[in-house]
Amino acid sequence: MLKTVDLTLQVLMKFTNENNSWTGKKLASVMDQNYATIYRILKTLHKRDFLTYNSVSKEYSLGIVLWQLGQTMYESLNLEELVRPSLIQLKEETDESVFFTVRRGNKGITLMAEEPAHKVKFSAEIGSSVPLFPGASYRAILAFQSEEFIADLIEEGLPQYTPQTMTSPAALRKELEMIRKEGYARSEGEYTPDVVALAVPIRDYENKVNCSVTLSGPSYRLQKTDQSKAILLLKETALNIEKILRNTSYKIG
Fold first, then answer.
1. Cα 45 from Cα 230, distance rounded (Å)
2. Of 159, 228, 152, 215, the residue nearest 187 (C-alpha)
3. Is the distance from CB of 211 to CB of 202 less than 8 angstroms?
4. Which of 20, 42, 181, 204 has the fewest CB atoms within 10 Å, i.e. is most exposed?
5. Which residue ranges of the chain lie beneath pLDDT 70?
């Protein structure tokens, strides 16, 4: 029974942003499992609305029940009402896109975003999950993880998302040291082409860094702005959020 439950959870975890739909045969092959077993699990999950089924492509995708559970979890946290006012203020002060990113395992998830009224802006997909290295939002968090954590992440590989992605372990370690020294991270076009990002780490009430706040926009515009001023505003925003997290004993990660 426990093995079946564990296998069912493994099946659900295979539905990611990169692979959001599967046929039964392909999923069984990737998981190196008996097709009949995977088929029964998929049919049960579909029956309970954990998955949807496309009869034309014969592919399964995540269903409404998982979205409902996610919404329930998210709303119970009340994190948005604690953090979003600070994000709105930073957006209004800079007139650029502002993001709040949290760590989940070895990945960063964009949890909240505030967008300016510019016709040209950088829009991040809420809920998108990215390894903690290609860009300022993620490195601002990675820099303050343990050496073992960083070594494991590097060991897993540093895939290249754009020609500017930092894929050298030595260069990454040097960059993380700079972030710890300066208190902020900067990137340009590493995950999304032609986008500059500035990010600052945020500590929770246990003094752990599991989230960051980011200011981002098109390269042609942010390169012309006073980035030192933007960094100061980012640091002020991070301090405001840290005070809120400390006062509410809110733990992230």
1. 47
2. 215
3. yes
4. 181
5. 1, 71-77, 118-124, 223-225, 253
Nearest partner of 97 among 64, 43, 137, 127, judged by Cα: 137
Residue 198: name the closest of 252, 113, 139 by CA: 139
> ∠80-217-70 over CA atoms, to 5°?
30
Convert the pLDDT of each residue in 166-201 to its tens digit.
Answer: 999 999 999 999 999 999 999 998 988 888 999 999
Q: What are phi and psi of 142, to 5 degrees?
A: -60, -40
The span from the CA of 96 to the CA of 245, in Å, is 24
Query: Which residues, including other chains, have CB under 8 Å from residue 105's CB and lie 6 or more apart?
Result: none
Q: Please tell me the distance from the alpha carbon of residue 124 to that of residue 222, in angstroms, as a whole number.
A: 17
- Helix count (H) and strand count (E) of the chain? 10, 9
Supply the pLDDT for residue 217. 84
Domains of the chain: 2-67 (1.10.10.10), 78-247 (3.30.450.40)
Residue with tokens 């939002």: 137
Whole-angstrom CA distances from 155 to 30, 105, 106, 120, 169 are 22, 15, 12, 37, 9
Rounded Cα gap, residues 142 and 92, in angstroms = 28
